[in-house]
């Protein structure tokens, strides 16, 4: 009797201890009966099922027989802990279950402690994070293909495929408003797989109902077509039981290209993250559309400028040489990544890319202003020391030198005064970039200034492969390059150098490096006192 009282006392104390624990804990004997549990943390079990010593499988799993496989029997047999996750049949939530054996003195398992923890919220957060990661990866992949010059048609097809896969929807398509006001599908997933759908779509006069954001100008998530007037009358949606959808605009509101749309037969409310993902994809497509239009415009303008003035030809060369359109695309993607990124190291790298890209765009915008000048008299020439101009050019290319481990030898001479315009810095940036490009790694570049009486001669000496006598007369011509093997270039840099130097009434040329291999590119500029009046 004493042992029974002591056992009851111990069970009562155990119940009190378990009641202080937030998770649900049950102690189960070898007969698979629950001998004690903190039932106050398991409201989904009815009071009737909690009475006595219920079987664990009937009380907790709503089964008439033990589970298959039965992890409880496994722990009772092996004496090893077992962890697993289940969808709780009592409340439908995701639970983490840990079974721990309790041993008798003879090392046999006397009972098992079942610890159940609700991890639904954690699983939901993990699912959201996985979805965001998948969405970011899809946008990055599409952006990379857009920057690589992928054809627009191929990019559109890849976009609808990625969106449909990432959002797990049956239908995705891109539509563009035609000249007749109707919306034409130019890429799609799901629609084109059904010939009947394709034929019905061609006969449907109300297609523009689907593409409402083409007119609303804002992203929107739609659920239950029966409650939205803009979906009524759209036969394809009705016949295929598509009850949830979302459209976003491709392009700006004032000048839209079309819409990116997704639809599903599942009753689903799209999240803000889904909308942002769709809009990011639409932004990538809009940038690619703009790039294509800009490239076409640039090609057309290039033909028109062939018969224009020499200054306009110079601007075309600079624009082509530095690729204005990709610079604007880089700006857009860098700003988008700066908003999304939270890694400090990556943010620093992105900010560096953004700063240098902004300088590149600023240079090209200056060139755009330069083309408007009607004569040399309109360029602003000021009395300046050459040394600070060269030092600014060195700072502009410092990162490129550091990447190749190239050292610079430059002992600036003060008071080398000439009349210079802001374009003169571009001369030395081009000469230094050229020297860096063709120099071996861990080599050196020498900059020197010589006083030749009535002019200053600035020399940039490299130790690269050098230039043959056959190529020297033509390397300063537009689109002419010396044979440099695998090194890529447009052949415009030295032509730009010569034109800017000509505007400063100077000379430019190239000699062999007397110290061995390599070349000396030089620029001769008249001294301030010896420069004729303009």
Structure description:
- The strands form four sheets. A five-stranded antiparallel sheet has the order 2-1-5-4-3, with helices on both faces. Strands 7-6-10-9-8 form a five-stranded antiparallel sheet, with helices on one face.
- The chain is 44% helix and 21% strand.
- Residues 193-235 and 484-490 have low confidence and may be disordered.
- It starts with a helix and ends in an 8-residue tail after the last strand.
- By secondary structure, the chain is of the alpha+beta class.
- The longest helix has 34 residues, at 272-305.
- Helix 5 (120-147) packs parallel to helix 10 (272-305) and helix 6 (152-167) packs antiparallel against helix 10 (272-305).
- The chain is elongated and about 115 Å long.
Number of E strands: 17
Biggest sheet, spatial arrangement of strands = 2-1-5-4-3
Q: Overall pLDDT, averaged? A: 76
Strand content is: 15-25%
Low-pLDDT residue intervals, each spanning 5 or more residues: 193-235, 484-490
By DSSP (H or I, 4+ residues per run), the number of helices equals 16
Structural classification: alpha+beta
Taking all Cα atoms into account, the compactness measure Rg is 37 Å
Termini Cα gap = 122 Å
Helical percentage: 40-55%
**Biggest β-sheet, characterized?**
5 strands, antiparallel
Overall 3D geometry? elongated
Question: What is the structure about, briefly put?
Answer:
44% of the residues lie in helices and 21% in strands.
Question: What characteristics describe this protein?
Answer:
alpha+beta; five-stranded antiparallel beta sheet; single chain
């Amino acid at each position: 009797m004493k042992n029974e009282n002591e056992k009851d006392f111990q069970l009562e104390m155990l119940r009190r201890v378990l009641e202080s624990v937030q998770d649900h804990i049950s102690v189960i004997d070898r007969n698979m009966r629950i001998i004690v549990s903190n039932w106050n943390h398991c409201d989904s079990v009815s009071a009737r099922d909690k009475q006595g010593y219920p079987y664990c499988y009937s009380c907790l799993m709503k089964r008439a027989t033990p589970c298959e496989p039965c992890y409880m029997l496994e722990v009772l047999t092996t004496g090893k802990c077992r962890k697993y996750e289940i969808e709780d049949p009592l409340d439908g939530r995701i639970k983490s279950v840990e079974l721990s054996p309790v041993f008798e003195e003879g090392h046999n398992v006397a009972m098992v402690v079942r610890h159940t923890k609700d991890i639904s919220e954690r699983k939901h957060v993990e699912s959201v994070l996985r979805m965001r990661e998948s969405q970011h990866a899809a946008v990055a992949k599409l952006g990379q293909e857009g920057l690589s010059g992928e054809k627009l048609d191929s990019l559109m097809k890849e976009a609808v495929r990625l969106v449909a896969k990432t959002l797990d929807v049956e239908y995705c398509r891109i539509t563009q408003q035609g000249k007749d006001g109707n919306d034409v599908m130019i890429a799609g997933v799901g629609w084109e797989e059904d010939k009947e759908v394709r034929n019905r779509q061609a006969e449907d006069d109300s297609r523009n109902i689907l593409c409402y954001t083409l007119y609303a100008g804002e992203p929107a998530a739609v659920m239950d077509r029966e409650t939205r007037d803009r979906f009524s009358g759209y036969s394809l949606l009705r016949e295929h039981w598509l009850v949830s959808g979302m459209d976003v605009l491709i392009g700006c509101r004032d000048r839209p290209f079309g819409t990116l749309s997704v639809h599903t037969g599942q009753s689903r409310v799209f999240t803000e993250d889904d909308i942002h993902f769709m809009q990011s994809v639409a932004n990538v497509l809009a940038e690619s559309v703009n790039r294509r239009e800009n490239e076409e415009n640039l090609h057309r303008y290039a033909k028109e400028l062939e018969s224009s003035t020499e200054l306009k030809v110079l601007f075309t060369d600079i624009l082509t040489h530095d690729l204005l359109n990709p610079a604007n695309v880089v700006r857009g993607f860098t700003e988008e990544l700066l908003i999304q990124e939270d890694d400090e190291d990556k943010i620093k790298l992105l900010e560096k890319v953004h700063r240098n890209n902004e300088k590149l765009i600023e240079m090209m915008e200056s060139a755009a202003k330069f083309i408007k000048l009607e004569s040399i008299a309109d360029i602003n020439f000021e009395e300046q020391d050459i040394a600070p101009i060269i030092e600014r050019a060195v700072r502009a290319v410092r990162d490129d030198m550091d990447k190749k481990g190239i050292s610079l030898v430059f002992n600036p001479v003060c008071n080398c005064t000439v009349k210079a315009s802001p374009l003169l810095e571009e001369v030395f940036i081009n000469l230094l970039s050229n020297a860096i490009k063709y120099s071996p790694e861990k080599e050196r570049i020498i900059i020197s200034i010589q006083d030749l009486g009535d002019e200053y001669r600035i020399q940039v000496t490299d130790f690269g492969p050098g230039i043959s006598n056959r190529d020297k007369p033509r390397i300063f011509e537009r689109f002419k390059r010396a044979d440099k093997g695998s090194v890529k270039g447009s052949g415009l840099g030295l032509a730009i150098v010569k034109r800017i130097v000509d505007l400063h009434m100077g000379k430019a040329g190239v000699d062999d490096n007397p110290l061995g291999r390599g070349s000396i590119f030089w620029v001769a500029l008249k001294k301030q006192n010896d420069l004729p009046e303009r």
